[in-house]
């Protein structure tokens, strides 16, 4: 047989004296069962065909192979396994060459490592990102990579999950050659022909010698183990990766493969893997808001930013980094100079860390202009407003935008809480007004809430999602309400933390319990970092409209009244001595809390860390359920993406709604009903949660495409 039917996901044909094997499994050539079968069949065909003197494997479309098919995880295994496929390729008696373009990730790189010769063209992305999915390279990657490039480089690749380009791969020894052009097929064919002319023999990575220096390998493993133990923060797979590399150093290849397989299956079965794969898929699903299907985005070639404070400057940097020209508007020359200085400070920080050159900074700033006149925004395709959080100020800004902006310009607000319907209603073109809620620091934080007011047109929503992609942000569609998805939930679970604090838990214990759950910081550390004055101003603004029957813990106000705003004032919930960023517990704060408990007539009692976590999470999940029930979030997965990308929720727990499913909704509802007995106003079970429990369903049942 010389060729397979064209519809198969792996197609092979004889090209002269070569068997050309093409993997064609859109969208990313993932290694599903049919691909695995096709690859084995292709190798068998090469062995059986005397006319085929070598095999060349390429990928169709934009990538070589992006890895195992993550949709198969958790399902019954189907033969052949990916390690079998790699072993079969490596064992082939004729030279197997791969030509890589686009992604060669995870199992895709493992296929390449099992082949005998590797070429990559410009734009190739090679990596072993399994760790990001709670896994380890499980198709020989932990055994072949160190043999090929040494333990240290292999560990760095596998523990970071980072992609490297073709030049880095060549330097590292991961590929043998870089193509002259980006025509991967032509380059692959030419390389294969050259190898045949040179009578290149089969060369198996299992026999490669980069681990020959045992002392260097042992040192790299010891260093990686110590570093990983410190940094892996609850993750299972990183230390197992180190174990596997140690096996590569100390055991024969076949035994090393067995160690890898056992560790891989442990990871595959773990809830962490399920949560991280959910996180990966949810992020992609969240990008498919209904308007992205029903409408075409408007073209965006230039941007304006109004306000050059913390957020305006960060947003300007994000826009500049995406290659857009940016015009910043401020109230006066001094504020504009400050705004520009904020932008420059970000780039100077990167220069100091050697992550940007002076030349690159100059190129970016050449696209940056400032003005105190709104007329400078006449040509902008999108304008993002980031002025003070004050309805009157924002409405005045939008009136100006209405006056100067060209028809069809997208007019966005970065408001945290204000009613965007009201902002839109004040101008003649409400169909162009949308919320683009960035998170601080705006050039770093991935989350972008796309807040959709009632009268906005669908193509403006589609444009917002398109812009998010250009900015490399993770967009989530949110409806208009006080705080949208993230800040609305934050207000509730922070209130739960304050209740716990007044009832007897110290802020330090709460922070510790929340950190142990996997958050990088506890809620009081976050307040100290962001500045307690921000929340204080919001609380004062809302004091008049607050439900007088709702429980209100005054402890944070007592700290703010003393000017203790956190890190920037060296005191907050913690003390920050000598400019240190790690705070120390403060006995004076404990005394203030005691006095407040007394004033509020609370008799404090002790909480275990587990009790703290149960209340904190129950408050978060219950409000999440309300947010879905009110259609502020489309699905539970949109909440998960929001909390993981903007609020430090550990990805290996998959976001609060995924976490809720793992805890079990009946148990959660039982907890909330118990807490309700003490504070029925705060702990009102969400109707959606009650409904799901009655139907015996989970939040994941609501995660359908929209
Ligand atoms: N399996 C199944 N589907 C995958 C996939 C995979 N490994 N990787 C991506 N996809 C799907 C996405 O879910 C998305 O589907 P959709 O269109 O239905 O939403 C589609 O492919 C396109 O993905 P992106 O939107 O991410 O496309 P980009 O062009 O932005 O990025 C990519 C392409 C760089 C390949 C990126 O998708 C990616 O990083 N993929 C994951 C790579 C990975 O983690 N591989 C390791 C898998 S684990 C493994 O190999 C185990 C082995 O060691 C045994
Ligand atoms: P900021 O106080 O640092 O900056 C506001 C800037 O707006 C100031 O530089 C001020 O001079 C300028 N400004 C005020 N009125 C103006 C006008 N009429 N025309 C032009 N410029 C004007 O405030 P920050 O923190 O940047 O917040 C801005 C907006 O972003 C607010 O709506 C806030 O709620 C929102 N936001 C803030 C986040 C944060 O963490 N700070 C996070 C997400 C949103």
Describe this structure in words.
It contains 29 helices and 18 strands. The protein is of the alpha/beta class and 706 residues long. Strands 11-10-9-12-13-14-15-16 form an eight-stranded mixed β-sheet, sandwiched between helices. Strands 1-2-3-4-6-8 form a six-stranded mixed β-sheet, sandwiched between helices. Strand 15, helix 18 and strand 16 form a beta-alpha-beta unit. The model has no long low-confidence stretch (mean pLDDT 97). Bound molecules: 3-hydroxybutanoyl-coenzyme A and 1,4-dihydronicotinamide adenine dinucleotide (NAI). 3-hydroxybutanoyl-coenzyme A binds at residues 27-28, 30, 63, 66-71, 82, 103, 105-107, 110, 129-130, 133, 135, 137-139, 141, 281, 284.
Shape, please? Answer: globular
Strand portion:
5-15%
Mean pLDDT: 97
Major beta sheet, strand line-up: 11-10-9-12-13-14-15-16
CATH topology grouping of the largest domain: 2-enoyl-CoA Hydratase, Chain A, domain 1
Give the total of beta strands. Answer: 18
Question: For the record, what CATH class of the largest domain applies?
Answer: Alpha Beta
Biggest sheet record:
8 strands, mixed
* Hetero ligands: 3-hydroxybutanoyl-coenzyme A, 1,4-dihydronicotinamide adenine dinucleotide
Q: What level of helicity do the residues show?
A: 40-55%
Number of domains: 3
- Give the low-confidence spans: none
CATH-defined superfamily of the largest domain: 2-enoyl-CoA Hydratase, Chain A, domain 1
């Amino acid at each position: 047989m010389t060729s397979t039917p064209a519809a198969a996901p792996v197609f092979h044909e004889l090209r002269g004296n070569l068997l050309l094997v093409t993997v064609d499994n859109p969208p990313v050539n993932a290694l599903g069962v049919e691909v695995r079968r096709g690859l084995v069949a292709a190798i068998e065909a090469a062995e059986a065909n005397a006319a085929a003197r070598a095999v060349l494997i390429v990928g169709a479309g934009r990538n070589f192979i992006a890895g195992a098919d993550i949709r198969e995880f958790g399902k019954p295994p189907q033969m052949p396994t990916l390690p079998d496929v790699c072993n079969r390729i490596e064992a082939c008696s004729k030279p197997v060459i791969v030509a890589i373009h686009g992604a060669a990730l995870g199992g895709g790189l493992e296929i390449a490592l099992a082949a005998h010769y590797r070429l990559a063209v410009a734009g190739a992305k090679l990596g072993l990102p399994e760790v990001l999915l709670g896994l380890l390279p499980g198709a020989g990657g932990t055994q072949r990579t160190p043999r090929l490039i040494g333990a240290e480089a292999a560990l760095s690749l596998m523990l970071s999950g980072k992609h490297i380009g073709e030049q880095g791969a060549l330097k590292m020894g991961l590929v043998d050659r870089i193509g002259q052009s980006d025509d991967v097929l032509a380059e692959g064919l030419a390389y294969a022909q050259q190898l045949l002319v040179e009578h290149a023999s089969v060369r198996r990575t299992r026999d490669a010698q980069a681990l020959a220096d045992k002392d260097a390998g042992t040192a790299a493993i010891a260093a990686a183990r110590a570093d990983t133990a410190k940094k892996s923060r609850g993750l299972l797979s990183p230390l197992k990766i180190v174990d596997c590399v140690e096996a590569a150093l100390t055991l024969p290849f076949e035994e090393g493969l067995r160690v890898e397989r056992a560790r891989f299956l442990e990871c595959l079965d773990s809830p962490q893997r399920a949560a991280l794969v959910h996180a990966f898929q949810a992020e992609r699903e969240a990008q498919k808001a209904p308007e992205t299907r029903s409408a075409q985005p408007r073209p965006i070639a230039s941007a304006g930013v109004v306000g050059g404070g913390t957020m305006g400057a960060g947003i300007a940097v994000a826009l500049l980094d995406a290659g857009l020209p940016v015009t910043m508007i401020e109230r006066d020359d001094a504020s504009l100079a400050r705004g520009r200085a904020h932008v420059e400070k970000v780039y100077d920080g990167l220069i100091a860390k050697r992550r940007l050159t002076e030349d690159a900074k100059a190129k970016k700033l050449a696209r940056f202009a400032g003005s105190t006149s709104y007329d400078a925004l006449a040509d902008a395709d999108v304008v993002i407003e980031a002025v003070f959080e004050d309805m009157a100020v924002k409405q005045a800004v939008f009136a100006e935008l209405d006056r100067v902006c060209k028809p069809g310009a997208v007019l966005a607000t970065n408001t945290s809480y204000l009613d965007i319907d009201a902002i839109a209603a004040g101008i003649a073109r409400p169909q162009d007004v949308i919320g683009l809620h960035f998170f601080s620091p705006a050039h770093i934080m991935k989350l972008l809430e796309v807040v959709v007011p009632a009268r906005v047109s669908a193509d403006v929503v589609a444009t917002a999602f398109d812009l998010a992609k250009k900015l490399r942000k993770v967009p989530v569609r949110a409806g208009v309400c006080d705080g949208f998805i993230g800040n609305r939930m934050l207000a509730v679970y922070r209130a739960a933390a304050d209740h716990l604090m007044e009832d007897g838990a110290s802020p330090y214990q709460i922070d510790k319990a929340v950190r142990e759950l996997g958050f990088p910081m506890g809620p009081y550390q976050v307040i100290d970092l962001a500045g307690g004055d921000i929340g204080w101003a919001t609380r004062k603004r809302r004091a008049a409209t607050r439900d007088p029957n709702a429980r209100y813990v005054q402890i944070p106000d007592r700290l703010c009244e003393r000017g203790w705003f956190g890190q920037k004032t060296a005191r907050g919930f913690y003390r920050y001595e000598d400019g240190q960023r790690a705070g120390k517990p403060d006995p004076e704060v404990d005394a203030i809390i005691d006095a407040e408990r007394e004033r509020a007539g609370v008799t404090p009692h002790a909480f275990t860390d587990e009790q703290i976590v149960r209340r904190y999470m129950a408050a978060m999940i219950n409000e999440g359920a309300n947010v879905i029930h009110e259609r502020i979030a489309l699905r539970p997965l949109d909440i998960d993406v929001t909390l993981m990308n903007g609020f430090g929720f550990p990805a290996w727990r998959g976001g609060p709604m995924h976490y809720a499913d793992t805890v079990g909704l009946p148990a959660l509802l039982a907890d909330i009903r118990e807490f309700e007995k003490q504070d029925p106003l705060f702990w009102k079970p969400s109707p959606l949660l009650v409904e799901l429990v009655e139907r015996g369903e989970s939040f994941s049942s609501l995660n359908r495409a929209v």
